């Protein structure tokens, strides 16, 4: 028991200390950061950097763009991936295996590899500088992970469930929406959190496809605090704090479903 | 209980997108791996398997990158899996405090890789960094290191950062997996007077196998793709000691403008991951139990 | 259970649609002058029809503010042109710029590094020929040679950077140290500084240190300007004396404690800080960091102090310069005329002076008036000193460049110069035809 508490405590410190450092740095000035990297900010609680960021009128636009892209990407990835995972679980023949392999393989492809060919595709479809283009690409590149995780969980659902609903004469769609989805809530919300994080922080694709300031997302905006020869750490960390806030909210929101999954007792095959 | 034909319709929307924006570009990359394309010009020549021969026989940095990547992967897979499993078991009950701690442990995951890189560069800085300062204050000067500058330990410093970054994420998968284990099994075990260890060995572990497979496989793949973190922290240096395959692919494709060769390295890279993932599946699935 | 799920899914999706609509509005709303032919900006009263929008891309995040002002003035003088500027970090710029230039929609005016990026863009044919443009005469003829190829002026470098160590002049005076003129004096200087508990050289080995400091370290060991061309053609080898002795000089600096043992883990920001706080005497990067140093410690008095690695009478070169931030017009662009007009504007001495003084950079434009203190104090390097173009930019193959830099890191990590040179040479041979 003591060992448990100790291990948890140590790890908690390991997380809290760097976060505290980020918060403190975001309240410092540039020169303070280096003169006194570990100390408290000279002016106490100083939110000047936060005000500065929100004063620049473009920030709100970036924030909205990021929200749109993330929400749409997460919802559709989750929906399509759950459908595919369900199909894989139901298909007992070779097609199911092939589909599963095809998506698993997708996780292994490093993003650097298909960056150039992907850019060509997006360009030919006229989807550069468009949020829609970004969303479609996001869905496609994160689907493998989502399919992989969801299939893993759906396979553990008791087979009798499917049989029971087949006898009831329910179609596949009904079975999917009224049996499988509710039972997969814990894994769906775990996957949703993964996807939220990935899409919200994604830098590579906006960097490639978006050059118009009206369609830029937050991670792209954060890059502006990084110069060729000097990085504005206080501003950067302020940006990090602001960009992280929605993720904290998303986590708190989705966390309820893990709990729900537990207490509903539905999983007890 | 065979599925009806309608089930294929479930594949359609996802598959269309996946084909256009993923399969097609990936297959093109495979095609380019047999060419000398620079990634920009409209012209290129076919060079057969020359690129593959070069990677296998005449590229000392690629060999080094593969080695580094394996060390990095082993460290991350072992520590990340153990940490997340232990914390999941400790924090399984949905008390307020546990929920808070799970959220806290998850926090690093929501940061972007670039932010994590900045934070840890700050921590690892040899003279004014948090870590060496802390060791200095605690009288542990002997343990002070040049964490990212020493060629022998830099890759492990980065591996630790990666563990810090993603343990919370894996913790969630394990928690979801543990929650899926029916409570009655534990009640039966309790009635039969099984010890904690016996319960873990006979019930928790076998039923956790699917989650464990996901965690281990995903962690493996993540550690091969830890491009952003490493690139933003050390860019593969010093002297390629933190070069992993993904950073090397980037260098070859976008700095040396040798897209054809970079594609062939990527194909080899995929084969390596596929083999390792397959082996892991074999090992972890062997003790699969159904209930 | 089920209901709440669909509720949240439904909410998510409808919120998405709603927000998409908002974002679309916002996108269309201020897409003034965006010349894409989608007409979703309909209903917008701004007159954008007869305005041409050009895109300007570069990598100098530090300069955003000055450029914003310059662009505003340019636009008011040329009401029919709007400039949209996009800034990328230099890393991403090096990898992504070429892709974006391909279709001509971005980067009507773009910038290029000399060296391998210039070569690749030239190979791909993205440079519009600027040879006959009048504004070329506003530039210093010698400085812009690096932007020429096959008798054409493909790009015009804008900034003039001195890639050699910066030092704290007052500190040297207080300690009675004369700027060293030879390698022996340089080592002696290091000893004196260390006696006074000052780190002689702050060397950011974790990022740009090796690729900046190698230039002045080798300038007199390998005075031949074609040395890297010869290396890439196989005529020269890194195991020959010019490079091995450079590595040995690095080792000497390490052994004498002039570069700290930790240097490979130090990033540029913390190296700057240690010089600004007067814990170190020299910063082994370049002129571009003078503004940051002054910002952190306004009392500093700075000048350059490149190491002379030979005896005084053998020294041919006194320092290093680079003409960079090369302005160019995209060959694939349909708005080349407007793009050239913008470069013409940047090359006017008054505009250039504003840029120079606000960013703390020397420029390649003739007749620029340097009013800022550190620029005035160091301007004599432009005229009175024998400086040499940064040798590193004569390496056109980036794998070769990496091998060269790795050998420095290897020596600073404790390996012998001979071994490091041999391993680097092996990588070079793997990468040249």
UniProtKB/TrEMBL annotation, chain A:
<dbReference type="InterPro" id="IPR035906">
    <property type="entry name" value="MetI-like_sf"/>
</dbReference>
<feature type="transmembrane region" description="Helical">
    <location>
        <begin position="175"/>
        <end position="198"/>
    </location>
</feature>
<keyword id="KW-1003">Cell membrane</keyword>
<feature type="transmembrane region" description="Helical">
    <location>
        <begin position="62"/>
        <end position="87"/>
    </location>
</feature>
<comment type="similarity">
    <text>Belongs to the binding-protein-dependent transport system permease family.</text>
</comment>
<dbReference type="Pfam" id="PF00528">
    <property type="entry name" value="BPD_transp_1"/>
</dbReference>
<keyword id="KW-0472">Membrane</keyword>
<dbReference type="GO" id="GO:0055085">
    <property type="term" value="P:transmembrane transport"/>
</dbReference>
<feature type="transmembrane region" description="Helical">
    <location>
        <begin position="131"/>
        <end position="154"/>
    </location>
</feature>
<dbReference type="InterPro" id="IPR000515">
    <property type="entry name" value="MetI-like"/>
</dbReference>
<keyword id="KW-1133">Transmembrane helix</keyword>
<protein>
    <submittedName>
        <fullName>ABC transporter permease</fullName>
    </submittedName>
</protein>
<keyword id="KW-0813">Transport</keyword>
<feature type="domain" description="ABC transmembrane type-1">
    <location>
        <begin position="63"/>
        <end position="254"/>
    </location>
</feature>
<feature type="transmembrane region" description="Helical">
    <location>
        <begin position="7"/>
        <end position="27"/>
    </location>
</feature>
<keyword id="KW-0812">Transmembrane</keyword>
<feature type="transmembrane region" description="Helical">
    <location>
        <begin position="233"/>
        <end position="254"/>
    </location>
</feature>
<dbReference type="GO" id="GO:0005886">
    <property type="term" value="C:plasma membrane"/>
</dbReference>
<feature type="transmembrane region" description="Helical">
    <location>
        <begin position="94"/>
        <end position="111"/>
    </location>
</feature>
Automatic annotation (TrEMBL), chain B:
<protein>
    <submittedName>
        <fullName>ABC transporter permease</fullName>
    </submittedName>
</protein>
<keyword id="KW-0813">Transport</keyword>
<feature type="domain" description="ABC transmembrane type-1">
    <location>
        <begin position="66"/>
        <end position="280"/>
    </location>
</feature>
<feature type="transmembrane region" description="Helical">
    <location>
        <begin position="203"/>
        <end position="221"/>
    </location>
</feature>
<dbReference type="GO" id="GO:0055085">
    <property type="term" value="P:transmembrane transport"/>
</dbReference>
<dbReference type="InterPro" id="IPR000515">
    <property type="entry name" value="MetI-like"/>
</dbReference>
<feature type="transmembrane region" description="Helical">
    <location>
        <begin position="163"/>
        <end position="182"/>
    </location>
</feature>
<keyword id="KW-0812">Transmembrane</keyword>
<feature type="transmembrane region" description="Helical">
    <location>
        <begin position="7"/>
        <end position="32"/>
    </location>
</feature>
<feature type="transmembrane region" description="Helical">
    <location>
        <begin position="72"/>
        <end position="92"/>
    </location>
</feature>
<keyword id="KW-1133">Transmembrane helix</keyword>
<feature type="transmembrane region" description="Helical">
    <location>
        <begin position="259"/>
        <end position="281"/>
    </location>
</feature>
<comment type="similarity">
    <text>Belongs to the binding-protein-dependent transport system permease family.</text>
</comment>
<feature type="transmembrane region" description="Helical">
    <location>
        <begin position="99"/>
        <end position="123"/>
    </location>
</feature>
<dbReference type="InterPro" id="IPR035906">
    <property type="entry name" value="MetI-like_sf"/>
</dbReference>
<keyword id="KW-0472">Membrane</keyword>
<dbReference type="InterPro" id="IPR051393">
    <property type="entry name" value="ABC_transporter_permease"/>
</dbReference>
<dbReference type="GO" id="GO:0005886">
    <property type="term" value="C:plasma membrane"/>
</dbReference>
<dbReference type="Pfam" id="PF00528">
    <property type="entry name" value="BPD_transp_1"/>
</dbReference>
<keyword id="KW-1003">Cell membrane</keyword>
